[in-house]
């Protein structure tokens, strides 16, 4: 199982990636298929479910907005 945090742009996903790197949370930026989001094509950060809570906290502290977590 994996989790994806969706972002509206590559730039925002890159900013989120920087925050997660500083927080030592393993992740990778991925392109999200249009059928998985409400807005169509987007980018996301893939993380293991184990790190989902820590990733959300880190992104909220940095005031980086993301969509609903996608579990695959």
The gist of it:
The chain has 72 residues and is α+β, with helices and mostly antiparallel strands. 32% of the residues lie in helices and 25% in strands.
- Counting H and I runs of at least 4 residues, what is the number of helices? 2
Strand content: 25-35%
Please name the CATH topology: Alpha-Beta Plaits
Question: Low-confidence parts lasting 5 or more residues at pLDDT below 50?
Answer: none
Could you describe the largest sheet, including whether it forms a barrel?
4 strands, antiparallel
Highest-level CATH class: Alpha Beta
**Secondary-structure element pattern, one letter each:** EHEEHE
Task: Give me the CATH superfamily.
Answer: Hypothetical protein rpa1041
- What is the residue-averaged pLDDT? 91
N-C termini distance: 6 Å
Q: Judging by the overall fold, what is the CATH architecture?
A: 2-Layer Sandwich
Side-by-side strand order of the widest sheet: 2-3-1-4
> Number of folding domains?
1
Helix content: 25-40%
Q: Using the alpha-carbon principal axes, give the shape.
A: globular
Task: Count the beta strands.
Answer: 4
| Class from secondary-structure proportions | alpha+beta
Rg, rounded, reads 11 Å
What keyword list fits this structure?
Alpha-Beta Plaits, globular, 72 residues, 25% strand, alpha+beta, four-stranded antiparallel β-sheet, 2 helices
């Amino acid at each position: 199982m994996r989790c994806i945090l969706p972002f509206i742009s590559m730039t925002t996903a890159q900013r989120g990636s920087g925050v997660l790197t500083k927080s030592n949370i393993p992740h990778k930026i991925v392109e999200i298929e249009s059928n998985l989001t409400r807005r169509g094509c987007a980018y996301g950060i893939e993380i293991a479910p184990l790190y989902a809570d820590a990733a959300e906290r880190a992104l909220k502290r940095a005031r980086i907005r993301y969509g609903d977590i996608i579990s695959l």
